[in-house]
Amino acid sequence: xxxxxKLQNESEEIISYNPATGAEFGRVANTSxxxxxxxxxxxxxxxxxxxxxxxxxxxxxxMKAREVILAEMDSIALLISNESGKPVAEALSMEIAPxxxxxQYFAKNSEKLLKPRKINIGLYATLGRSSxxxxxxxxxxxxxxxxxxxxSIPLGEAVMSLMSGNTVVLKPSELTPLIGLKIGExxxxxxxxxxxxxxxxxxxxxxxxxxxxxxxxxxxxxxVATGKRIAEAxxxxxxxxxxxxxxxxxxxxxxxxxxxxxxxxxxxxxxxNAGQSCSSVExxxxxxxxxxxxxxxxxxxTKKLKLGAGSEETTDIGAMSxxxxxxxxxxxxxxxxxxxxQILTGGKHHDLFFEPTVISGANNSMRAMQEETFGPTxxxxxxxxxxxxxxxxxxxxxxxxxxxxxRDLSKGKRVAERIEAGTVCVNEVLYTHGIGQTPWxxxxxxxxGRTHGIEGLMExxxxxxxxxxxxxxxxxxxxxxxxANAIETFKGFAxxxxxxxxxxxxxxxxxxxxxxxxxxxxxD
Length: 524
Ligand code: NAD
What we know:
- With 524 residues, this protein is of the alpha/beta class.
- 42% of the residues lie in helices and 19% in strands.
- It has 17 helices and 22 strands.
- The protein has helices at 33-50, 55-71, 73-84, 88-113, 152-163, 177-189, 204-212, 224-235, 259-271, 288-303, 323-338, 386-394, 409-418, 453-458, 484-495, 502-506, 509-523, and strands spanning 14-17, 24-28, 117-119, 129-137, 140-144, 167-170, 197-199, 217-221, 240-244, 249-253, 281-287, 342-345, 349-350, 353-354, 357-360, 377-383, 398-399, 401-405, 423-426, 443-444, 447-448, 461-469.
- Helix 6 (177-189) links the parallel strand 6 (167-170) and strand 7 (197-199).
- Helix 1 (33-50) packs across helix 7, helix 9 packs across helix 10 and helix 15 (484-495) packs antiparallel against helix 17 (509-523).
- It is globular and about 90 Å long.
- It binds nicotinamide-adenine-dinucleotide (NAD).
């Protein structure tokens, strides 16, 4: 059965499986370390030309790539579904539509977002100095994604890298390599110059080789354990990394919330993509007085969900992407039961189809309330006070996203700001990765750095400070040589100039002229 990676040794191909049927879906090369190194070198060469392209040229390529996707939308959605297991509906709503939006946004706005920025340098400006920041591309960006959003995550990161003047080497997940290759093909069809985007298929060893090839940035999405390994390996070359890691995202429902809507949100937030989203609802905390009603609504709605092959239009929940992931879900459900929680619906699987599972009587001391499940489970716990809800939500090594549900928006925002997570929604759930304009990333073990938004774009450039002296006639008072006059002047700098006040600084003028005169005399 299943999407189990069959890889005996380094030289073999990787076989991709359709998780819904267990049938072989395709074979790709298992790229060797030498080939990865060569790809990074080729990327570095391509960068020398690509970095000189204008924003308008980059925009043309990205907009052309959008057209390719739009023209092939149905077949791309089916490819995503067949290789990852998710319903075609989710391939469209959670991958293709959001990444198309991200593409147009960064194609049209990167120039503005990366516009050189003048800095107010205060009193230094009165000395004829000016400063501005220009944003230089980094070089080669290595993208190493997970398998759960195999199209939108790497494609979005590639587009942002390209728009900021970098070239890209992408190593897709070994579970979804054909989707990775499709991304390369889309750019090829868009006419992107050779080696500006390259795709190297392979498993962890190929990813490790990419890190060791010393690209200028690593954009990694995956588990905490791999993230730590990558950070360690990248440190050898001082390569900076963005780490998008796991989550155990809490949903807090107060009794005054619209419970019907909260129940719908919980069901979607926990079970879409078969629960395999880093921002899936993995813990639901409901105020005690609303617990029975909310739980009843959630169970009713969950029982109506239809499991099936992602390629069928009416499928709500597709197959899980791998047997390894399914085993974790099984283990967590069993451990919930063992520790005294109740399985209200679901809990079983056939092949890689795991039933959406609602669990009541959960609490934070249970192992599966702490470890990331990454599957279709929704454990429900209760709280009594606002303080307790915040404490329970923050009692986790993770901090990716969270949601707060209440009709009292000021309470919602107050609670949101006390949750330790990179994104907190009030009366919304899970979907903000789809808003390319907003930063995405985690607190605590959920990651380092950001993708998306201006913050994400800043990860892909290096700010360069250009400082100009428009009055380059006289030597500076702080230059060599030193002596009593210099010391007196520097004390004046500390007392007057460093106050930031023009009035105070005017007191320094006589001493400053004396010092400049002295320097001028020496240099004449
Ligand atoms: P994983 O860590 O097993 O693998 C991720 C990628 O890293 C794969 O491409 C893999 O081939 C590669 N890899 C493995 N070992 C490597 C090494 N030593 N050096 C370099 N690359 C290596 O994770 P996964 O199972 O693919 O993904 C699931 C995890 O991803 C979950 O924890 C989930 O929460 C997380 N995730 C996070 C986000 C986010 O935005 N924070 C988004 C999606 C998924």
